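Q: Given only this backbone (162 positions), what sequence would you predict?
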C-alpha cells in the first residue's frame, strides 16, 4: 500500500494537528469566565495572593489570545471582576507601594481549590478563626471582613409621588 493512500497520512501528521490546536488556542477566546481566570491565577501563587499586574501576566501567559488583542478592554473586565465579586478580597499594599495584593475570600477558597467557580446567590461569610485553612494563611489575619457594612448593603428608596 502506498503511504499516500493510508488513512494515517490522510488524517495528517500528529505534529500538524498539535500545531493547529495550539494556534486555535491562541486565536480563540477562552471559555472560562473572568472569575475563573482570576481565581486560577491567584491559586497559582504560593501564598494565594497576587498583584494586579501579575494576574494580567498569568492570563497572557496561559491564554495567548489576550496578548493578540488590540484593545486592552479585557483588563478593565479583570479589574471590574476583582472589585465586584465578593470572592476576591483586596489585601495589603505591595512592598513598593504601587498597588494592592488580591486574594480569595476564605469562604470561596475551598470551592475554588476544588475547581468549582460557580456564582453563589448567598453572600460570602468569612469562616471563624478555628478554620485550619485560614490559620495556614497568615496574610489573612483580618478574617472578619464584614459585608454587612452599610456601603455593601442595597439601599431602598421610598419614592413619593405628588
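A: Predicted residues:
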Amino acid at each position: 500500500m502506498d503511504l499516500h493512500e493510508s488513512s494515517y497520512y490522510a488524517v495528517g501528521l500528529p505534529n500538524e494537528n498539535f500545531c493547529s490546536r495550539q494556534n486555535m488556542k491562541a486565536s480563540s477566546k477562552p471559555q472560562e469566565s473572568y472569575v475563573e481566570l482570576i481565581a486560577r491565577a491567584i491559586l497559582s501563587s504560593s501564598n494565594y495572593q497576587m498583584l494586579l499586574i501579575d494576574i494580567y501576566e498569568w492570563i497572557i501567559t496561559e491564554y495567548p489570545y489576550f496578548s493578540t488583542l488590540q484593545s486592552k478592554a479585557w483588563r478593565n473586565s479583570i479589574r471590574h471582576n476583582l472589585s465586584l465579586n465578593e470572592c476576591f478580597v483586596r489585601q495589603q499594599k505591595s512592598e513598593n507601594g504601587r498597588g494592592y495584593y488580591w486574594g480569595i475570600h476564605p469562604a470561596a477558597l475551598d470551592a475554588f481549590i476544588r475547581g468549582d467557580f460557580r456564582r453563589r446567590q448567598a453572600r460570602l461569610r468569612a469562616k471563624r478563626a478555628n478554620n485550619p485553612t485560614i490559620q495556614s494563611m497568615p496574610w489573612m489575619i483580618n478574617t472578619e471582613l464584614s459585608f454587612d457594612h452599610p456601603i455593601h448593603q442595597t439601599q431602598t428608596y421610598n419614592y413619593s409621588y405628588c
